[in-house]
Amino acid sequence: MLCADQQYRRGRSQPPRRHPAPTTHVATKPNQVWSWDITYLPSPVRGQYYYLYLIEDIYSRKAVGWEVHSAESGEEAAALLQRSILSEKCLREPLVLHSDNGAPMKSATLLTKMYDLGVTPSRGRPRVSNDNAFSESLFRTLKYCPQWPQNGFASLDDARAWVRDFMCWYNHEHRHSRIRFVTPAERHLRLDVDILAKRHSLYQQARSAHPERWSRNTRNWDAVREVTLNPEKQQNLQEEPQLQAA
Fold first, then answer.
1. How confident is the model at residue 101 (pLDDT cuts 50, 70, 90)?
2. How far is it, in rounded angstroms, from Cα 192 to Cα 64?
C-alpha cells in the first residue's frame, strides 16, 4: 500500500493534459479576424488529392483568398496570405489569422510571413474540431454543393476551375443564413445594413396590409453587429448559432 506522499505512475503513463482555452476574438467589421484551413479535393486516382487553401473573413463570411495546389506547403500558405492582404488593402492593419494545428499552419515560413505582415496568429486546441468552425463550415458548404463532382477532379486545372466558379457563386450569390441572408460580398462591403433595413420595412408594410396572415412577429432583419471566434464557455452557449453551417 502506498503512502499519501508516494504517488507515482507506472511506466510511461502521464497525468492527463488539459489544453488551455483558445483565445477569444471578436470581429466588428471586415478584415479584423480571418480563419484559414486546407481541405482535400479528390482525384479519380485512389489516394491522390489536390489541396484547397482557403482564407475566410469571419465577420462577412467572404472567402478573401483561395488557391488549389498539388501538395500542402507552408510556402504556398504564406504566399496566399500576402496576396490576400494586398488584395484586401489591409496591410499593417490589426488582423488575426486563426487556424488549426496542421503542419502548414505551424510552419516557420508562414509564421515569419505573418510577423513581417503584422498578422497575429491564433490556433485552435489540439484534437478539438470546432475551434476552427468557420473554415469547416465553408468546406461543408462546398462539398455538399449539388455540382460537387462525385468522381473527383480530373486534373489540377479542373479543380482550380471548379473552385473558382464555386467561390464566385459563394461570395456574390449565396445568401448566407448566419448573416441574415445577404451575400458575403454585400456584407464585406458594408451594404448589409441598408439591405436589411429595406427588408424590415417591406415586411412591416406586408404585415400592416394583411395582419391576418401574421401569427407571429416578422423575421429579425437586424444586421449582425459582431461575430465571435471561440467565445468563452458561457457566451458559447448563447451564440452557438453563429458557429454553425454556412
1. confident
2. 18
pLDDT digits (tens, 9 = 90+) for 222-236: 999 999 988 764 444
Grid coordinates 451575400 are at which residue? 183
Alpha-carbon Rg of the chain, whole angstroms? Answer: 22
pTM: 0.83
Quote the strand ranges of 16-173, DSSP E: 25-27, 33-42, 49-57, 63-69, 95-99, 119-123
Report the chain's mean pLDDT, rounded to a whole number. 87
Give the phi and the psi of residue 43 in degrees, each rounded to 5.
-115, 170
- The alpha carbon dihedral of 94, 100, 106, 110 has a sign of negative
Domain boundaries, the chain: 25-179
Q: How many CB atoms lie within 10 A of CB 116?
A: 10
Separation of alpha carbons 213 and 122, rounded Å? 48
Contact 38, 54 (CB under 8 A): yes
Model pLDDT for residues 68-84, shown as the tens digit of each residue: 999 999 999 999 999 99
Q: Does residue 220 contact residue 241 with C-beta atoms inside 8 Å?
A: no
The CATH homologous superfamily to which domain 25-179 belongs is Ribonuclease H-like superfamily/Ribonuclease H (3.30.420.10)
